[in-house]
Amino acid sequence: MTGPEPGGSPAPESPQPSAWQPAPPPGPPKDPGPAPGVAYSDLRFRVLAYIIDAVIVGVLNLVVSVLLLDVGLAFGDTLGWIIGLVFVTAFNVAFSALYFIYSWTKLRASPGQKILGLETLNAADGATLTQPQAIRRWLILFGPFALLSALQVVVGGTLGNLFSLASLGYGIYLLWTTYKDPKRQGFHDHFAATVVTRRSA
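Given the sequence above, the corresponding structure tokens read:
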């Protein structure tokens, strides 16, 4: 902590280093973009980060899901199985939301992204995501998968397989929009005004 300057006035604190270039001077609109040594993340790093996060979330969900199913089965076989599935689905969705929204707003990256040097930032100025912004991103990135997965379990059969195909199609769409965008902003990124960056130096 910096001590007071002579005369009693506190010394100004040192500014935090930024991963974003300063705003351009007045004139035609121009995106300042990441600072030197920081680039928009390639799709391969983003997919790998997601796989790491999926393993972390999946292991924790598996442990809790077994316990929740045991609780549900206490109500009987058929009813207990339904109650257990409801508990498991609700927990999985809630935990996923908490995991990613907290990480993006408090750590600027999910644990998987941290391992690979990625950050999820506000697209305009590289600032940390606000909570509403992080919620919007999570809803578009993971919400449809959670809904389609729940419908697949409830409906089952041929219709359930259609929901499974719809989930696969949506995942491909997100990957395609991310790959084709020059800033690697997928549909979910545009919706929440976010970008994913990676330190290249």
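The chain has a mean pLDDT of 82. Try to locate this feature in the token string yourself.
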